[in-house]
Structures are given as structure tokens and as C-alpha cells.
Amino acid sequence: MAIDLGSAAPTRPQVDRATRLLETAEANGFSSAWLGESYHVRPEVFHLPAALIVLAHLAGRTNLPLGTAVLLARAYEPRRLAYEAALLDQLCTGRLTLGLALGNADLAERVGGGTDGRSPGEWFAAMVTVLRETWSASAAGGPGAQPVAPPPARPGGPPMFLGGRTRAAALRAATVGDGYYAATNYDDDLLTARAAEYWDARGNASGDVAVTRLCLVAPDANDARRMAAGYFAAVVNYYTGRRAWMGLDGAVTPRFPLVGSPADVAAALRGYASSGVTSVQLRVAPHGTPPEVARRTLELVGEAVLPELDES
């Protein structure tokens, strides 16, 4: 489940609603919960800043593994992030996956990160290396080690999924990360291409390709599409107003493969698996979606979608 929280409404009530949905997700076979972040200068319908703070709050309220989808690396100094992610991994008892992407260039000026004069890609890869080396040093100690305390719950720290919509991003994820992460607004053709590039570069090594998708399930597919057209409008307009719903050759019209009947959604998930995707985070409660609609989607996924996938 992907958790939708935004700055256009008070935070604590949103988190409380999300926690209740996480209970439903866990009871219906979902395997993890993911939260993104943004650093907006005005209220927006999704993503809060400082996602690690929110996940630290949720760590004591759900048993689900937690993930960031994604942290914006330019907002962080690497050593500080090593401390904070290690602490969160302790709080959620080793259940953290750290998703990272570069973020916009202005983040360094606004919130204090930076690329130290190097190219963004070079700096980002080095940041991932610093995190991994710091966490490994925390586990091993020894001369020259620069550990953090407390260390991560797991030796070597949490796995890191790296995002970005370019081929270079997929290759970076394959070479220095543990997985590749594709955002909601990466159309399926873009996702398929990046997944193929990731697995080609990964060779025989294990890995992961994760993606976030808007999802609404109803017994009748037409009802699902009608509801999604209304309830998802605010989030979709956020992307399309910025020409940010992206295909291989630029902005495209949004498509919603995970909106429909349980059979429709199961078929779409099988399609993702065949294209190299290993996990899908379902955005069931974007801004404007009634909690009961989101809850029913979670229940139908558990009752009718996951069993069909198990059988296939």
C-alpha cells in the first residue's frame, strides 16, 4: 500500500486515517507500506516533507514493513541521512526499505543538501556508497570505520531502491542500488523500458523493480472507472498540470491499469510481473477518496485479486 498524505489538510487526522487503512491492508494480505515526500512551498494534495519523521510515527502503529517512495536525495546530507535511516530501521525493527531519487535541483538551495560541485548522477551514486559503507562500518567496526550509533537493525543497513525516469537512473539502480523504483506518473511503456534496462544491467544478480500505481477496485469495472475519474482528479491534475505524466517520448495522457474489477486488476498485475516488476504499491486513498472506498478496494484486493494471482 502507498500512503497518501499531503499538505492541503491537517496532518494528524490524515495519518490517523492512514493508520486505520494500514490495519485493513495488513488484514488483507498486503506486504508493506510506502510513503513519498516533497518539499512544497504551498499546500499540495500529496506528499509531506521529511517522510522519515512520519514513518517513525507509523513504525509503532503497524507491523507492515515500511518503505520510502521516495526520499529526495538533494534534500539530505549523506552522513545525516545515514544516522536518521539507521534510527528508523531500529524503530521498525529492521523492516525499512530506503527508496531514493535525486529530486529537483533547487532542493539543495532551499533545504540544505547539495552535490558538492559534482554531476548530479555522480554525487547521487557516491551518496548511496557513503550510506552503505557507513552502515557496514557500524556493523563491523575496525580501524578507519566511521559508524553511526545506533546502527541499523540489520548489518549493512536497509536495502536501497533508486528512482528516476531516465535510462541512466535504471542503470544506476542496477549497479549501485538494490532495486529500481518507478513513480506513479511513469506510464507503463516507460516503466517497461526501464525495467528491461535494469534487468539487463543487473545480469544474474537478484534485484527488484517496484512501482506505485493508483488503484480502485469495484465488483463492476464501470463503477470503478466512474469513481476513479472523480476521486483521483486532484492527484491526476497535479501531474498533468505540470506535464509530468511521462511516457518514453514526453508527457502522455494518464492511464490507470489498476482501476476496474478484481479480474481486471489481477490481469494487469500479471502483466506487470511479466515485464519484470517485482512489487506494486497501490495508491488507494489519494486526496479526495472517501476512506470507505479505499477500504473496500483493500478488501477486494485481499478477497478477490490476491487469490487469483496465487492460483496463477
Automatic annotation (TrEMBL):
Signal peptide range: none
Cross-referenced InterPro entries: F420-G6PD/mer, Luciferase-like_dom, Luciferase-like_sf
Keyword entries, A-Z: Oxidoreductase
Family annotation (SUPFAM superfamilies): Bacterial luciferase-like
All copies of domain Luciferase-like, residue ranges: 11-278
Stated name of the protein: LLM class flavin-dependent oxidoreductase
Species annotation: Actinoallomurus oryzae
Domain of life per record: Bacteria
One Pfam family hit: Bac_luciferase
